[in-house]
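comment on this one:
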Amino acid sequence: MRLAFFLLLLVNVALYPFVSGLIAGKGDGSEPLRITSQMKPDSIRILPSGGEAPIAEAVAAPDVETVVAADADAPAVCRALDGLSREQVDALTARIGAQQLALQLSEVEQTETTAWWVHIPDMQTRQLAERKQAELRALGVREMIVMADPVDPQKLAVSLGLFKTEAAATELLATLNGQGVRSARIAPREGRAGRYRVEVRGAGPELAALFDSFPALDETTQRTDCQ
């Protein structure tokens, strides 16, 4: 009995390398051989825990509609011309219409200071104006006239002098102050100059096309930026 046990033990020891795959014949299909022949290290990919293959990050393409909208919302450019004659304004307006340019034109007649007026304003009634004249005569003022106030025709003013320069008006005012006149004022008198300021708004290329084709401007006209 003991002899049979030892014989079986020797047989098991002798067969163990073949059964465990430590000694493998060619093409015997043992597990280490199958693993070696099947595994390709360069093609192994480690998947995330969810089991889904990683997705390559996509590069977002520009939205065409967004680009177009951005161009459409670009701020308009504004250019101004100062000192245009009536004929030049009409010619500029006609050129915009003839070229069918998407431009907006606005105009305002310019004024210029033609004189400086020394006066006492806001005489509510003629009686008050005549009373003021009497006070001025008592202070030694001799040249004066009562007239309607250009700013408010419903009121009267005592005019003391009209000058072409501000310096001359300031000199008279200083003399009147020395005589005790405290209510006199200096105001510019503006007259129509017959010139216009034109502002044109729109896309930059269309503005450039308009001004490049516009006739040469005279020395009284200036190109400026809108305020």
The helical segments are 2-20, 31-38, 64-72, 86-98, 126-138, 166-178, 204-213.
